[in-house]
């Protein structure tokens, strides 16, 4: 990383001090949970006070995290322990483990709340686990370095992105067979379906863009590029994506560019860039989608953003190298 910061990034030095104004009160208290990759912990944040209320030790190198449909269980990828850990979200106590295959990184939960689809980066497979029996029920060969995972809203298709093969792999969830592949830009990291299931959004870290894919034809219909004044193009590395339920916005974490892009999800036009912490990685919206939370790996913090104004509210210090983030209602 260059020691000479671009003008926009230089503003970050004073960002933490500026983002200390009292946040608007919340109608219903929610909990933000963050995985800290380097500390082997979870940080639990109260979204009313925007402060860390608990630090929970977990397995080695926690990355991907997700909630059960009712929010009662938290699944954590303990990547260096080759397992998925389960936590009761009311107590944040560990209640069990699930086999995951080698080096789990990201995963997706089927709408039936029973099947986890797990990307095994070192083995080039997707492992499928039944969350009730906690047994592996299948493995599907995919491309090299699988990472991103997403399940279609109707539960019929799961997709995986392979970082080195530069493809999206389409898997039939009934037969657990690979049914198609779509070529995208270099190093695809994250995938998410639109609420109606008609579009798939895929970020490409090295390619520097986001592909919007028509799920009927499984072909890209748009590639979104980013340009931020004072920041070189090689620092713009898209990773996490979050779509609002109303179809208005797509938010994209731009990695070492230290910004989140705001995109019109219908026209695919970039509307704005929000300055956050260093090396922004993943994103989560709260239940009423009034707040967006970002994990900022290098600066070791989470930025809370007001969605109505598209302005940061506060920077919250967490553990080292925060990675995944979810919000529990």
Q: Which band does the percent of strand residues land in? A: over 45%
CATH architecture: 7 Propeller
Topology as H/E string? HHEEEEEEEEEEEEEEEEEEEEEEEEEEEE
Mean pLDDT: 93
Based on secondary structure, the structural category is mainly beta
User: How many helical elements?
Assistant: 2
Helix content: under 10%
Strand order of the largest sheet: 3-2-1-28
Cα shape? globular
Tell me the CATH superfamily. Answer: YVTN repeat-like/Quinoprotein amine dehydrogenase
Unreliable spans are: 1-22
CATH class: Mainly Beta
Measure the end-to-end span.
37 Å
Secondary structure topology:
Blueprint (H helix, E strand, L loop, with lengths): L6 H4 L4 H4 L12 E6 L4 E6 L4 E7 L4 E6 L5 E6 L4 E6 L4 E7 L4 E6 L5 E6 L4 E6 L4 E7 L4 E6 L5 E6 L4 E6 L4 E7 L4 E6 L5 E6 L4 E6 L4 E7 L15 E3 L5 E5 L5 E6 L5 E6 L4 E6 L5 E6 L4 E6 L4 E7 L4 E7 L1
Antiparallel strand pairs: 1-2, 1-28, 2-3, 4-5, 5-6, 6-7, 8-9, 9-10, 10-11, 12-13, 13-14, 14-15, 16-17, 17-18, 18-19, 20-21, 21-22, 22-23, 24-25, 25-26, 26-27
Description:
- This protein has 329 residues and is mainly β.
- It has a single domain, classed as Methylamine Dehydrogenase, Chain H (7 Propeller).
- The protein is built from two helices and 28 strands.
- A four-stranded antiparallel sheet has the order 3-2-1-28, with no helix packed on it. The chain has a four-stranded antiparallel sheet with strand order 4-5-6-7, with no helix packed on it.
- The radius of gyration is 18 Å and the shape is globular.
- The termini are far apart.
- Mean pLDDT is 93; it is low at 1-22.
């Amino acid at each position: 990383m260059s020691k000479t910061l671009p003008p926009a990034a230089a503003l970050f030095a004073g960002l933490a001090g500026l983002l200390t104004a009292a946040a608007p009160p919340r109608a219903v208290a929610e909990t933000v949970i963050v995985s800290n990759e380097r500390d082997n912990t979870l940080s639990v944040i109260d979204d009313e006070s925007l402060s860390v209320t608990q630090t929970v030790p977990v397995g080695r190198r926690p990355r991907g995290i997700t909630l059960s449909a009712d929010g009662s269980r938290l699944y954590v990828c303990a990547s260096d322990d080759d397992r998925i850990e389960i936590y009761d979200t009311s107590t944040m106590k560990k209640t069990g483990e699930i086999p995951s295959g080698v080096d789990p990184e990201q995963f997706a939960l089927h709408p039936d709340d029973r099947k986890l689809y797990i990307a095994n980066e070192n083995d080039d497979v997707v492992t499928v686990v039944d969350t009730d029996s906690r047994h592996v029920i299948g493995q599907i060969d995919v491309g090299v370095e699988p990472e991103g995972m997403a399940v279609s809203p109707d539960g019929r298709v799961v997709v995986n992105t392979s970082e080195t093969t530069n493809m999206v792999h389409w898997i039939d969830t009934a037969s657990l067979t690979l049914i198609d592949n779509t070529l995208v830009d270099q190093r695809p990291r994250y995938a998410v379906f639109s609420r109606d299931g008609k579009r798939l959004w895929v970020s490409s870290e090295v390619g520097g863009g986001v592909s919007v894919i028509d799920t009927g034809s499984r072909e890209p219909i748009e590639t979104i590029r980013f340009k931020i004044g004072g920041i070189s193009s090689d620092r713009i590395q898209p990773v996490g994506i979050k779509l609002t339920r109303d179809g208005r916005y797509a938010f994209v974490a731009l990695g070492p560019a230290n910004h989140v892009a705001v995109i019109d999800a219908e026209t695919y036009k970039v509307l704005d860039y929000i300055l956050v912490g260093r090396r922004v990685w993943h994103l989560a919206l709260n239940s009423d989608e009034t707040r967006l939370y970002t994990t900022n790996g290098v600066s070791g913090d989470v930025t809370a953003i007001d969605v109505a104004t598209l302005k940061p509210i506060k920077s919250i210090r967490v553990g080292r190298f925060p990675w995944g983030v979810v919000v529990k209602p």
